[in-house]
């Protein structure tokens, strides 16, 4: 017999075990996670595994300062012959030899236009000739100049190429000397010396300061600027949506949702961009405080570095806000690929673009991290020279500003005109 009291039917709660069997719950996260992992693996490892095999016009200076008279039986002095042999024997397209004077080479090293240099001294021919007459007082020397400001790997690649070229030149000179009839009665010691007569010494062509991470501080500082702009923009994006009632707030076990504020997409984007511009002042200052003041990173031209850092990080932040506004829920994933996944391997900050496959060189033409890295490197290592990459950095930052504003505001105004509002029903 019924008691007359109303009964409430309790909806059974779902369990993880049951839901795990639903393949639709696996589909979207599974496909996206697999694709992101595969693409990231290909992007990051594909750009660094074989830099020597991917060389494309790596710029190196070649200085022939030899003023000696050609040796008997030769029309040219040894400096000219070595220069011609080096340029002709290098595989076409691998190295771009800049045949310049010593002064021009120093200028190109100081502006970051070359990764290194090979110097043939003024007395090279005469010092080699002295070896065959017994008047030699010093061993003929070719000098390899490095440029650590272009990054440790890039400078190392240039050093390996120039050292190899110098040793090949020494071997070729040795073959000619030992085959000379005048040395038929020379001692074994003399013939051994003449078989490899040229010493190769390495010097720093353009020194950088001590606290620069062997030329890597520019890359990591750039990475901080891009990450700060990317992360703070996403934090602002989520925080504003939560405060305006367009997203739930969940902290630990506490869940809440604020009343929805009626505001269109364009005004929302302007609000997020305004907050991003303000917070970037803080993040840029903290990056400089941590890296320069606390950790002691060498950083000349600090006022210029701060201005460039702020504008670069802000450009990234505005770009992230524009992408989030245009793409909605997947905007953060799209922004991650634009500013992080595609930007890192094409930045040229660790592996030079001249030593990566062509796809990365193409990306480096417009990906923001490459432009920021060039500007930061110019400020930190090359005395803030405009022709060392600083001008290009400023120009591309300005382009980034314009693209972010035009794309973001263009998309939100389009959505607003179409009546695609973000208002959603409030929970009871």
UniProtKB/TrEMBL annotation:
Its main location: membrane. The keyword Transmembrane applies. It is found in: Cell membrane. InterPro entries: DUF3533 (IPR022703), T7SS_ABC-Transporter (IPR051328). Belongs to the ABC-2 integral membrane protein family. The chain crosses the membrane at residues 26-50, 218-236, 275-296, 303-327, 333-353, 394-415. Signal peptide: none annotated. Keywords: Cell membrane, Membrane, Transmembrane, Transmembrane helix. It is a multi-pass membrane protein. Residues 33-398 form the DUF3533 domain. This is DUF3533 domain-containing protein.
